[in-house]
Write a structure and sequence with these properties.
single chain; mainly alpha; elongated; 182 residues; 8 helices
Length: 182
C-alpha cells in the first residue's frame, strides 16, 4: 500500500518567506544592539590597559558578523532545493493546478507584505541595511524570489505527473519493465 501525498510543497515559499523575514529582523536587531554595545564598550575601556586587545577583539567579531550577509542566501537556496526535492517526490493532478493558481496569488500577496515589512524596518536601520547589501537586495526583491520559487515547484510537480504520481511511480514502472512484469 502506497501513500500518495498531494500536499506537496506549494506553500513552502510562503513559509520560507516568513522564515526569511524573521531572520532579517533578528539580524538587524542584533547588529543594532551590537553596534551600541561596541560603542559603549569602546568608551568604557578607553582608560584600561586591555584597551587595544578589547577593541581588536570587537573589530574581529564585527568582521565575523559580516558573514550574516552570505548566510541568508544560503538559507534561501537550501529551502528552495528542499522544496524542489519534495515536489519532485510527489507530483500532482490537473485539478491541483487550479489550486496552485490560487496559491500563486496568495504567495504574491504575502510577498508584497514581506517586502513592505522589510522596507519599513530597513528605514529605521539604514546603517545596518547598508552594511548588508545581499540581504537588502534579496528582501527588496522578495516578491520575485518567491514567484520564481513557487513557479519552479509547480513546474516540477506537474511535469513529474506524466505516467504516474512522482518518482515512486516511475521507479515502480522501471522495476516492472526490468523484471518483465506488465
Amino acid at each position: 500500500m502506497t501513500s500518495k501525498s498531494k500536499r506537496a510543497s506549494l506553500t513552502d515559499p510562503i513559509t520560507g518567506g516568513i522564515l526569511l523575514v524573521i531572520c532579517v529582523v533578528t539580524i538587524f536587531t542584533v547588529m543594532t544592539f551590537w553596534g551600541e554595545f561596541k560603542t559603549q564598550m569602546t568608551t568604557e575601556v578607553a582608560d584600561s590597559s586591555a584597551n587595544a586587545t578589547i577593541i581588536y577583539d570587537m573589530e574581529q567579531m564585527t568582521e565575523y558578523y559580516s558573514w550574516f550577509d552570505w548566510g541568508l542566501p544560503a538559507i534561501l537556496v537550501g529551502l528552495m532545493i528542499t522544496s524542489l526535492l519534495f515536489a519532485l517526490m510527489s507530483g500532482a493532478s490537473f485539478i491541483y493546478s487550479i489550486i496552485s493558481i490560487i496559491v500563486w496569488a496568495v504567495c504574491m500577496l504575502v510577498s508584497y507584505i514581506f517586502h513592505e515589512i522589510f522596507i519599513n524596518f530597513a528605514a529605521y536601520f539604514p546603517v545596518i541595511s547598508a552594511n548588508y547589501p545581499i540581504i537588502t537586495f534579496l528582501m527588496e526583491n522578495i516578491n520575485i524570489v518567491m514567484l520564481i520559487w513557487v513557479v519552479l515547484i509547480s513546474v516540477v510537480m506537474f511535469f513529474q505527473n506524466r505516467g504516474g504520481s512522482g518518482l515512486k511511480s516511475q521507479a515502480k514502472a522501471e522495476s516492472n519493465y526490468l523484471t518483465g512484469r506488465a
